[in-house]
Model the fold of this input.
Amino acid sequence: MSELPSGRGAEVGRRIGVGLMYGLWRPRVLGAWRMPPTGPAILAVNHSHNIDGPMVMGVSPRPTHFLIKKEAFVGPLDPFLTGIGQVKVDRSVADRGAITRALDVLKAGGVLGIFPEGTRGEGDFASLRAGLAYFAVRSGAPVVPVAVLGSSGKPGRLIKGLPPLRSRVDVVFGDPFEAGDGSGRRTRKALDEATERIQKQLSAHLENARRLTGR
Done:
């Protein structure tokens, strides 16, 4: 039987994230009130910086369990990430254990965090994988789009892939939406349609977030 990722651990992770992110950068959080205060929810986050996960984990109004690639669980990070309620996923196979744990988070009324592009890239939601649609349709949980807009293109970065220290990083939460068509169908066609629906919503949110922040 799969063990439910720790909700208490995710709250500890949120507090650690708050301290780290506000200590190293200057997060500006917009629209956090849009996050459903209770019940299951899926945060769909664009991914262009290494700090995106910890940043959203820290500024989210609720503890979040992110699906994180197993390659990140190395050495002491393995028990740490597991202890703060994060979900290890093997992207090279259909990781049934990770899928079950993620669905259990939603079934328990928790918040699941997903990078729907699957990997770090341009962060523009241009290429979505079907995983997000599967979790949204299967669980019925609303999807909350989240845009993280940093300043990675500017000089002064201490570490490649990270924004300059003390620079502003904007985190913009969008309106929750239903990914499915209401029929509850989980066929390949239904998932493809849901993925298309999600992509349109996320791209529109990102465009709005850029306009709102001037990024």
In short: The CA atoms of residues 141 and 184 lie 12 Å apart. The mean pLDDT is 85. The longest strand covers residues 143-149.
